Amino acid sequence: MATSARERLLNAATELFYEEGVHTVGIDRVIERAGVAKATLYNTFGSKDALIRAYLADRHESRRSRITAKVEQQTDPRLRLLAVFDALGDSIAAPNYRGCAFVNASAEASRDSSIQQVSTEYRGWVRGLFADLARAAGAADAELLARRLMLLYDGASIAARMDGDPDAAGLARSTAADLLDAATAPTGAATGAATAKRV
Amino acid sequence: MATSARERLLNAATELFYEEGVHTVGIDRVIERAGVAKATLYNTFGSKDALIRAYLADRHESRRSRITAKVEQQTDPRLRLLAVFDALGDSIAAPNYRGCAFVNASAEASRDSSIQQVSTEYRGWVRGLFADLARAAGAADAELLARRLMLLYDGASIAARMDGDPDAAGLARSTAADLLDAATAPTGAATGAATAKRV
DNA sequence: GATTGAATAGACAGGTCTGTCTAGTACGGC
DNA sequence: GCCGTACTAGACAGACCTGTCTATTCAATC
């Protein structure tokens, strides 16, 4: 057998926790799919909560590498920023897409759960990436644009999950393109955020 | 006692389900807070699942009236559209805000649960409202703008819940204002969606 | 006053959950 | 050959869950 028990547990947890929710899926289902004894799980991870954290940390890593790969395919700063939404589009197109794993896990956990911390790390990384890419693309206020792009990014995952919208990522991407263009426009007329025109 | 058993049950369910999640909170906690016997709950609603649906339907109604009231306060079509985000801002400002009740409940339920149906109704209403307000404000493509505004609306609730961003609604509102302005601009240069310029 | 309906408290069944524990097995290094 | 390590299978405790059922109280109506 090529894979370690830890790896098989993490794979089983990833599939089950993501598709059915961390609360609904019990330990027995995880160890059954992993083909592993219960004691092994508790020797390896210590608790279900720790397994959930490991699942999310693993997810964080795989999302990061997928997004980074998409970004690196591009050289134009503008296309590099929009590539984040292309990576999201790939995820949404998967047949078993069920929304953002961090948003879902967070909704199931209590407010002060340690799950929130792992989610915060992931979200901080995405926002930081948006800010870096926005700066490189010459946005007037990169931090503000990054926060706006996060709205679109999260909104797209919600639209895909709740409404089954298959083009949610494309919608977010085109909107992001418009915001980016407005934030990098040479004329100060429609820079968006900074304009206090009207209300 | 002025309120009926049904009303007290619904109030207790609303508080507990929203703050702690529909899965985590058991029947016993609900009836204890409502000060009602278990048999009364089952005579009134039939099952926990039906109580959850009633909780969401109730939420739908209260959200609708709150949003409608905010919109009706304005006469300018542009401000009427943005008022939806003002209503969201009021919700987020509440000390116990925990995100969109429908998104959260949906994350806890199985994919084909009847909960999804109640959520779909709510989301359809919001999107329809956005489309109506966008049309009234003279947007070039009201349906497209409505879908984009949904991204911002959902994104703001996620940002508020996951990042604790107190100004998430303001951020979404200012972004929505920019999108609306672009979609109603007299010059065809920056109408946003329809422009196929660049990628 | 008797009857009826709706509520009450709470025991109970049958199931699921996490986490612990015992007992046994396979294998690599020495 | 022997020992330590990592694993397996599975019983078990203790808690919690939903939903049903019994037995009782209270108030309004006939």
**What is the total tally of β strands of chain A?**
0
CA-CA gap between termini of chain A: 65 Å
Oligomer: homodimer
Tell me the Rg of chain A in angstroms.
19 Å
Total number of helices of chain A: 9
CATH topology term of the largest domain in chain A:
Tetracycline Repressor, domain 2
CATH architecture of the largest domain in chain A: Orthogonal Bundle
Summarize the amount of helix of chain A as a percent range. Answer: over 70%
Q: Secondary-structure element sequence of chain A?
A: HHHHHHHHH
Q: Unreliable runs of chain A, pLDDT <50, ≥5 residues?
A: 188-197
Largest sheet of chain A: none
Strand residues, percent of chain A: under 5%
Class from secondary-structure proportions of chain A: mainly alpha
Considering the chains and any ligands shown, give keywords for the structure.
disordered C terminus; homodimer; mainly alpha; Tetracycline Repressor, domain 2; 71% helix; DNA-binding
Descriptive overview:
The structure is a homodimer of 199-residue chains. With 199 residues, chain A is mostly helical. Chain A folds into two domains: 1-46, Homeodomain-like (Arc Repressor Mutant, subunit A, Orthogonal Bundle); 62-184, Orthogonal Bundle (Tetracycline Repressor, domain 2), CATH 1.10.357. Chain A has nine helices and no strands. The first copy, chain A, has helices at residues 5-20, 27-34, 38-44, 48-72, 77-93, 101-108, 115-136, 142-163, 168-184. The termini of chain A are far apart. Chains A and B meet through helix 5, helix 6, helix 7, helix 8 and helix 9 of A and helix 5, helix 6, helix 7, helix 8 and helix 9 of B. Chain A binds a DNA duplex (30 and 30 nucleotides) through residues 5, 26-28, 36-40, 42-43, 47-48.
